[in-house]
Specification:
Blueprint lengths: L1 H4 L4 H8 L3 H8 L6 H14 L1 E4 L7 E4 L2 H4 L7
Antiparallel strand pairs: 1-2
Helix pairs in contact: 2-3, 2-4
C-alpha cells in the first residue's frame, strides 16, 4: 500500500531500499524476510514520505506525511 501511495514501482522501491526486485515481490506476497531487509524497506519508504500508523484498535496502516508540516516530499507542481 505504501509503495503504491508513493507512486513507486517494484523496481523503484528495490533501488531505493538497495534490495532485489524479487525481495520486494516476496515481501508484498507476505513471505517472511530477514529483519534487516524489512528494516531497509521500511526506512526507504519512510524517507520517501510514508508514515506507519500503529495498530490502535482499527488496525495498522500507512499515510503520506504532510510535506508542509515535516519538510518532506516536494511535489512536481
Amino acid at each position: 500500500m505504501a509503495r503504491v501511495a508513493l507512486g513507486l514501482g517494484v523496481r523503484d522501491l528495490a533501488a531505493i531500499a538497495k534490495v532485489a526486485q524479487a525481495t520486494i515481490s516476496r515481501f508484498e506476497a507476505g513471505e517472511e524476510l530477514k529483519e534487516r531487509t524489512v528494516d531497509a524497506i521500511r526506512t526507504a519508504l519512510e524517507a520517501a514520505g510514508v508514515q506507519f500508523i500503529p495498530e490502535n484498535g482499527g488496525g495498522a496502516g500507512v499515510r503520506l506525511r504532510n510535506p508542509q508540516a515535516s519538510g518532506g516530499i516536494v511535489g512536481n507542481g
